[in-house]
Design brief:
Elements: H1 15-27, H2 32-48, H3 58-69, H4 78-83
Helix pairs in contact: 1-2
Length: 98
Amino acid sequence: MTGAKDDRLHLRVEPAQKALLEAASSASGSTVSAFVLKAATEAAADILADRRVFILDEVAWQAFDHALDRSASEVAGLRELLSAPTVLDQSEPGQAGR
């Protein structure tokens, strides 16, 4: 995405939002416009990442289709890991990490 920047976006923000954006852009050594554009572009790419189209040749498609049809398999230790208590399961407040 290079070239002339002829298009504009106009945003209305609350004073607290503007102050937050100004502080963050200043802390990152950027202008507010560059900061907002970078953050918005990254967020848009993240949202669209799993909606991309991918094209496979016939051999690759068959392998992909076969993988989708396979039964799930047990992963050693995963069941125990996911069923073990975590720090969030502790009953007393303030006891995490002790």
